[in-house]
Please model this.
Amino acid sequence: MFLNDQRYEDESGRFIDRNEIEVLGTYEHMADGFFKWQCGLCNSVDSTRAFKIGGVVFKCRECGKKNLLIRTDIKFINQKMANADRNDTESERKISKSLKYLGLAISELGR
Model:
């Protein structure tokens, strides 16, 4: 698994090293911080609420594996990329470039 950050935040706000992450989990944002996510190993689905979701490590209640949650709804990611492409500040160009790499990473997960 290729993870770019050295450390990630877990659901309790503590930082853990990237080598502690065991699987990638997916999530779907519902509303007001509520979301449901699926464990990347046992496929169990859990619902919870958090201020930060994507890029945060949540521990599966069923199998105990540490899941780095990633967003995989391509329509949303494409909208963000299109918005970033329309704007032309340096920070917005960096965001656009990052989103393109995220899209490539998600595509690789599907293979």
Residues 90-109 form the longest helix (20 residues).
